[in-house]
Design goal:
Rossmann fold, globular, 11 helices, 8 strands, 8-stranded mixed β-sheet, alpha/beta
Amino acid sequence: MRKVLSKDGTPIAFDKVGSGPAIVMVTGAIAFRAIDPSAAELANLLAKDFTVINYDRRGRGESGDTQPYTVEREIQDLEALIDEVGGSAFVNGISSGGALALWAASHLGPDKIKKVAVYEPPFAVGDDQGLPKDFVEKINTAVAENRRGDAVELFMTVAVGMPAEAVKTMRQEPTWGALETIAHTIAYDGTIIGDSSVPIERLAKVTVPALVMAGDASPEWILKAAEATVKALPQSEFRTIKDQTHNIDSKVLAPELEEFFKA
């Protein structure tokens, strides 16, 4: 494990494996290295051809969390990691991490981000499922009242769509405590997603090649949002991944990323 300082002085913890062109991986909500073995697995699968950075986003795991939170500061974290591996890199983002990766690509440009690949950024089209307008407010209120478990449960039921009974079972599992430690960062991802609509104007500023993927076993609204995201990006391609849901298998994702980043 290593650390790099972001522009505001926040330490960002990361693992670095492999050799070759650099890939920085951006995880989605409530994920960090200590509890997300899939990210480490993906990094190791890509390591034979790439230098892969798997990091704790700010507020999670061993990274710092300078306040106040802004999306721009998260982009600066990503930029610091890119600079750490030579000043330019490919970027892969999953779920809300994909939304952050696209935002960073629109802001940092091709000098920093050579290509960006995202899997199911959780935007929504029209009246399809999206985050409630008061989602971030409710998360922040629960955290402020030291009801971190309730904040995680709200995310699981409202954002992920899990049944309440299933979440009650999860609350009894050993890993639940780790999720509570990063409950406040759920609001960060909510801020990135905003009103859940596809950010057409921002995506139009992404001038690097982009790959948008979605699993064909995912809900229809996710596929529609992915297709709308592709249409808003100037240089993009869309791939549906057979038999995959929002929790994509790293062994399935790795070859897709290899093909796109090597082309």
